[in-house]
Amino acid sequence: MKPSPFNYVNPDTIEKALNALSKHNNAKLIAGGQTLVPMMNFRLSQPELLIDISNISKLKNITEDNKYIEIGSLLTHSNAIKSNCLKKYFPIISKAISNVAHHTIRNEGTIGGSIANADPASEWPLLVTLLESFIKVQNKKKKRKILYKDFFESHFITNLRDDEIITSIIIPKIKNSYGWSFLEEAQRDGDFAVVEVATIIEIGKNNLIKKARIAIGGVDEKVIRLKKIENLLVGFNLSENLCNFTKKDIDDQINPISDNHSSIEYKKHLSFVLIKKAINTAKEQILNVEDDR
Ligand SMILES: Cc1cc2nc3c(=O)[nH]c(=O)nc-3n(C[C@H](O)[C@H](O)[C@H](O)COP(=O)(O)OP(=O)(O)OC[C@H]3O[C@@H](n4cnc5c(N)ncnc54)[C@H](O)[C@@H]3O)c2cc1C
Fold first, then answer.
1. Quick one: which of 16, 31, 154, 279 could link to 221 by a disulfide (CB 3.0–4.6 Å)?
2. How many domains does the structure of the chain reveal?
3. How does pLDDT run across 103-126, given as a tens digit for each residue?
4. Do 66 and 162 fall within a single domain?
5. CATH number, position 42
């Protein structure tokens, strides 16, 4: 199918884009077009005006200070994988984003488009949730800085308003030494995840776990954090068994739905297996780094 007819503008500043957005009732921003164009081709989305923001260079930067890294919303998946700054502080980004679709899609698709789309099985929403990020948005009148848990609301639904643009994502740097892991199970290479899990385990004095983060996608209406298991891990020594929980403990915290590929029970089983593996991978990573010193 072909999209319904639309007009097109290509502003080179945020102000011009916001101006166009505020003047039209049925306008849509387009960044990489990797989600919106297929939706328009299927006529699931029929905007009368497309506002192409891909030429706004101000939205493509990565900057850092002592506390934060700020990623412009137009950063493509491919450039996120290549970024030395992101690799230095958060190697998990390169690992996770390499699982997004294929090269051609990664070359065009953006972090802003991915989180605006809010697919609960997508990699960027998983990372933004794991990394406790803020999403900076603005309309013609004001700017907002929204914490990840207030931004994602449900399947494909966010707190973003129709007249707002996501300008950047702010990730707090992690001060403690930490281990991390990203695991995903998909039907084929490049497919959306059936289940995806990411962890960060921060270490304090005497090798005791100071903070644990476990994010899981594909098993609820949005990416969720497994707070019960995270709290359980705090205070553990790395030499101990960290997976002292049952499948029921996980089942109680997730709410998967069945689809053409997998049943609810399969997703629950997969979640349990991946979470245990992810925790142990992060633990091994910390222990191996210590051995290398
Ligand atoms: C075959 C295929 C496989 C895929 N596999 C995966 C996968 O495995 N994992 C995965 O995560 N993704 C996957 N994707 C989706 C891909 O990652 C998209 O790039 C991403 O979801 C959207 O980014 P985009 O820049 O292309 O957004 P667009 O398609 O341009 O826009 C998507 C939506 O976001 C809005 N939007 C875009 N930018 C902004 C902004 N700055 N502010 C506010 N709203 C904005 C648009 O208005 C639109 O509603 C796949 C896509 C395809 C076609």
1. 154
2. 3
3. 999 999 999 999 999 999 999 999
4. yes
5. 3.30.43.10
